[in-house]
Amino acid sequence: MEILQLSKAIAWSKLHKIDVDEAGKVCAANTALHKRRFQIPKDASKHLSFCRFVEFSLRPWTRCLFWVTAWGIWESSENWHLYYRLRESYGDRRLLDEAPAHLFLDYENHDLTSFLQIALSAGWDCLLLTSTGYCHAAISHDEWIEFFMRDKVELEKLSTNLAQYGVKQLPTR
Q1: Model pTM score
Q2: How large is the average pLDDT for residues 13-42?
Q3: Residue 46 and residue 58: Cα distance in Å, rounded?
Q4: Best label site of 12, 164, 168, 170, fewest CB within 10 Å?
Q5: What is the 3-state secondary structure (H, E, C) of the chain?
Q6: pLDDT value for 173
Q7: How far apart are CA 147 and CA 74, in angstroms?
Q8: Of the candidates 150, 153, 117, 119, which has an alpha carbon nearest to the alpha carbon of residue 132?
Q9: pLDDT of 43-84, one tens digit each?
Q10: Which residues fall within 8 angstroms of residue 92, CB to CB, at 6 or more apart?
């Protein structure tokens, strides 16, 4: 895993033809992707399995950029010690606001899942952007996840799988 500063995260996104703004939001002008929004399970005991499902849904990917775009919203839920200890295990001691993006290789999928679980429990906004462009996701502190996919049929399958898991689909804005 490589941890990237904001400017490098934006450059990586543009290199992979992902249109994002300076705040790390996927630009709505990208109409080539179909999107669906779902409620994140409220029960924290389901977060790990949900994070595994999210990571699996992004496949195939060779690189995935996990980009934290907002934090400090639910301060009482943030476990900074846990986050920074995990980040430090990769040899990085910078603060999140100095380098908010984490670039994972495909064999680091379990690591991605761990960072994603921390983000969910902390109530952070984040993006998951894949190098293949097959699927991306945006997670909100308002407890929803939005998937962006090229293939509408695959998005339908993902929706069906989430419904079987008991995840509610929300109106897309």
Answers
A1: 0.93
A2: 81
A3: 19
A4: 164
A5: CEEECHHHHHHHHHHCCCCECCCCCECCCCCCCEEEEEECCCCHHHHHHHHHHHHHHCCCCCEEEEEEEECCCCHHHCCHHHHHHHHHCCCCCCCCCCCCEEEEEHHHHHHHHHHHHHHHHHCCEEEEEECCCCEEEEEECCCEEEEEECCHHHHHHHHHHHHHCCCCEECCC
A6: 73
A7: 23
A8: 150
A9: 999 999 999 999 999 999 999 999 999 999 999 999 999 999
A10: 3, 99
Instruction: Strand 34-39: give its sheet, edge to edge.
Output: 2-4, 101-105, 63-70, 125-130, 135-140, 144-149, 34-39, 169-170
pLDDT: which is higher, 172 or 102:
102
- Compute the distance between CA of residue 144 and CA of residue 168 in angstroms, rounded to an integer: 10
The one-letter code for the residue type at 90 is: Y
Q: Which amino acid is present at 21?
A: D
pLDDT interval class at 19 (50, 70, 90): confident
Residue 4, C-beta contacts closer than 8 angstroms, at least 6 positions apart? 12, 65, 99, 100, 101, 102, 103
